[in-house]
């Protein structure tokens, strides 16, 4: 079957847009092919700085013929209706229609057959549609044309045909750009025209013209050449996949070269050197494999095989890097002249969020919470307090202003430089962690205390002002904050009750919010008082403000809002924990079953309970008990709805008639006591074993006892006994939440 080759040749496409554009081109063309009945065998898209290319192989030569049936009026319908039907169906007379019967009678049906079009004609229609509607993030117009493209579009290669024949050119015209079979090679080394036929011929022709079409291959070439060049000089490449992908999008014919900079710049932290070289010149840094420290060498990737071996290119990059590193060194040296704590007053002038106050207020809250958390995580409270005070200070430094991605890390360097304790300094870097699922979590107790305080303040704060994530929108990264807190607690094996952890933060936030609300109203009133020129009244108002802030009204507002906020946050953490455990292979319904119990806010214990529950449900006893509990719950739900009441409380022992119901009642009492005692000792495996002992008596009860007995008192007592089964299992989990 024929293959399609499509190339859109333009001026340089920004590297960040290339991969998405290649995917969009593939999807837009192949979706339209399938919609047109042209089901293809395979497709692959490519991108270089100056072209998007697509190959689709195994495309049918023609669309399939279409048979269409149009139902018309009833036989014997008025002539007007029949005439309208004939016009719509394209029939000359009613004799060309067939008659079909259904439940309502005989109807005229027009059967028309439409021959499929040649695939090349269908493709000729779709390419202009795709080009004109291409979803570039940004596009431009040029010259006098109306076409919009990311950069000026010069030509389009579009050929279609089988391997055994000369392919045809797909003919169309888009603002003067016609389909053709001519492209161009490398801008400098092979700028002439190249006539191509099909994909294999196209790739080979581009290679001869110094263009590597496949971005993955360009990445492999750069990586391999850079490693070889570094190894030959006794160095090691500091790999950077994000930068590698970007550089591969900047060149069509990668040529790897090595440059160097003054050793004096190695006094700057290595991360600053790397960020400077990476951001400004898109170059890779090297390190000494024996010491793991950066060297004064770097790798650059040129887009040309220069006649001088690249000397001029290297020299140009060295000049720019020298200037940029000079700036970085100046920033770093300037930052060292000001202590971190001396920067803190400026935070009072920076608003964190209009409803949550300034950065200074936030730092105060984080500091207070970190000090409270310190004993619970095994940290020194004084160190945790100091670390929290300083952890945001580097946000106001010159280096972080230039390279925001170095926040935290630079705080560590500056803290160490001014003689801070190592744990305090490390917390500056670690308190942001983890920033992603693959990132490490803080290990030092001081870092853990500050990291938790930072994340909890963020979560509680935005819950207080009702700025919660909705659907796919999470502008304040609250899901990431919750997952981070969960990972920290679980990885470190820390026992903390969530509700206690955020209660004090909530109180501080509520007080702060109440304060700002009151002061806003007070300032407005004070201006009016000043107009009256009554200083005594103004003093009295000031005194009233202080009294108000200590009043029961503020405390009452805290109490009324806290339970609702606490439940909402706990549900949010439960959802995030389910995500975390699901990635580890755990069942989300077991998390629901544990969280459904009262007072479950100790994540470590929840996970242990979930693990024990999962193992229990994998046994025959667990599966059968679950089935029995669900059967009891289903009966209860039906009967409670029918009677309009619940069957809570203990069953009447005098009404237990059958041996099986007596045995079940006794077994429930024993299981409840044993399971509760095991849970109190946090021995969840033993609690599950206690529940397992219910299985034979539950099975026997359902086999021998009729729950809905004719005797009303007997029936209600047996339903109460069923409720006891449900309540007994709640010692370990809410079995109604478990699937299966």
Concise overview:
With 740 residues, this protein is of the alpha+beta class. 54% of the residues lie in helices and 13% in strands. A hairpin with a 2-residue loop joins strand 2 (42-48) and strand 3 (51-57).
Largest sheet report: 7 strands, mixed
Radius of gyration: 37 Å
Q: What's the CATH C level of the largest domain?
A: Mainly Alpha
Count of distinct structural domains: 5
The CATH architecture term of the largest domain is Orthogonal Bundle
Quick check: average pLDDT?
90
Characterization of this structure:
Strands 1, 2, 3, 7, 8, 9 and 10 form a 7-stranded mixed beta sheet that branches. With 740 residues, this protein is α+β, with helices and mostly antiparallel strands. The chain is extended and about 100 Å long. The chain is 54% helix and 13% strand. It has 5 domains: 3-62 and 118-208; 66-114, no CATH class; 215-336, no CATH class; 341-496, Hypothetical protein af1432; 608-737, Isoleucyl-tRNA Synthetase, Domain 1 (Orthogonal Bundle).
Keywords:
four-stranded antiparallel sheet; 26 helices; 740 residues
Task: Lay out the secondary structure.
Layout: E1 3-10, H1 15-35, E2 42-48, E3 51-57, E4 66-74, H2 79-89, E5 98-102, E6 105-114, H3 119-132, E7 153-161, E8 168-169, E9 173-174, E10 177-180, E11 182-184, E12 193-195, H4 199-208, H5 215-232, E13 236-237, H6 241-248, E14 255-260, H7 270-281, E15 284-287, E16 294-302, H8 311-336, H9 340-343, E17 351-353, E18 357-358, H10 359-377, H11 381-390, H12 398-402, H13 409-417, H14 422-430, H15 445-464, H16 478-492, H17 498-531, H18 535-549, H19 552-583, H20 588-595, H21 603-617, H22 620-643, H23 659-680, H24 684-692, H25 695-704, H26 712-729
Parallel strand pairs: 7-10
Antiparallel strand pairs: 1-3, 1-7, 2-3, 4-6, 5-6, 7-8, 9-10, 11-12, 13-15, 14-16, 15-16, 17-18
Helix pairs in contact: 1-3, 5-6, 7-8, 10-11, 10-15, 10-17, 11-14, 11-15, 13-14, 14-15, 15-16, 15-17, 16-19, 17-18, 17-19, 19-20, 20-21, 21-24, 22-25, 22-26, 23-24, 23-25, 23-26
